[in-house]
Amino acid sequence: MLVFLFLIFAPLAAFAMRYLRLADISGDWQTADRSSAGLLQPLAPPEPAVFGVS
Q1: Which secondary-structure segment (H or E) carries 26?
Q2: Which pLDDT does position 11 carry in this prediction?
Q3: Is 14 helix (H, G, I), strand (E, B) or coil?
Q4: How would residue 20 be classed by pLDDT, with cut points 50, 70 and 90?
Q5: pTM score, two decimals?
Q6: Count of helix runs (H) and strand runs (E) in the chain
Q7: Whole-number Å distance between alpha carbons of 13 and 19
Q8: Percent of the chain residues topping a pLDDT of 70
């Protein structure tokens, strides 16, 4: 039973310690970089509108 509890709580404790240690370094979503990743090509200029007269 003790081994089972260790296997459950040890990863949780390690994750919590890592989260608390990196929380000050990584910032939050408000300070995240919002610039483009450059994955898409730039948009082509739109074609001019054509109006037909009947």
Answers
A1: helix 2-26
A2: 94
A3: helix
A4: confident
A5: 0.40
A6: 1, 0
A7: 10
A8: 85
Q: Residue 44: left (phi > 0), alpha (psi -120 to 50), or beta?
A: beta
CA dist list (Å): 38 to 23, 32, 35, 45 = 28, 16, 9, 18
Cα within 13 Å of Cα(18), Cβ side: 6
Q: Amino acid letter at 8?
A: I
Tokens standing for residue 3: 């081994």
| 24 or 10: which leads in pLDDT | 10
CA distances from 8 to 2, 15, 51 (A): 10, 12, 68
